[in-house]
């Protein structure tokens, strides 16, 4: 009996500790730094600093998100990239928190915004959301935010030519307990090759993707793809991006050290990509653990994160 009481007491202590840790992780965030190297960054005369935000879901850190804004400012970014789901896509839900934060970010440097599934559903279902999406987008564009909705934009930073692309997949690719069969050629259909006299090539691992078809003169522009759902990272790699930035999974809710995230919003266990940086040949994948939560308000061993990236040329 004493052993049983001891086990029960130990279980109670562990449960209390887990509850306290969950509470702590729901009220703070960390800054994760990654260095990304590439031979294609040879045009840059110094490191390029990028801040990547994803999955805020209207979370607030300090009054008017002052803590988050201060953290971004201290990173001294050259570009701010947004991976989607900054708001909550529910009928009648306010987007004021996301609007206020993103608008303030434009004071630091150029801001590029790709859509997540929450923005996407607001965009395609006006019967449910009314004018919320066009109003939100219009107000941010007025502040200078550039939206990437299956589009690409060239930008020159510190002597280096970058092309920023935002992938917007249809709603069925986010359905519960189902993973759509998306390939690199499917992504090419949604996000056609970028055409510009200043941008002429993008490598593909197998020479068959959209990247390889752009041109073949080897100008070496560095391609960054914002693709919200990391379930389709392998297709994005086939498409040919040099750097893929994703979010969506909120780190897998609970993370197991040495293993990673436990579950995805679509109900799949132990996703391949959930909240880390992965190198595949000359290509890099970074998946954010996100800054907020949504339906399931739990995080354990999974602190929300702001991601700071340095693009560095290979020696």
Sheet with the most strands: spatial strand order = 1-14-2-3-4-5
Q: What are the secondary-structure elements, in order, as H or E?
A: HEEHEHEHHHEEEHHEHEEEEEE
H/I helix tally: 9
Report the radius of gyration as a whole number of Å: 20 Å
Strand content: 15-25%
CATH class value: Alpha Beta
Look up the CATH topology: Purple Acid Phosphatase, chain A, domain 2
CATH homology-level superfamily: Metallo-dependent phosphatases
Distance between the termini: 66 Å
- Percentage of residues assigned to helices: 25-40%
Number of separate domains: 1
| Gross CATH architecture | 4-Layer Sandwich
By DSSP, the count of extended strands is 14
| Mean pLDDT reading | 89
**Structural class by sheet pairing and helices:** alpha/beta
Shape assignment? globular
pLDDT under 50 segments (min length 5)? Answer: 197-209, 211-218
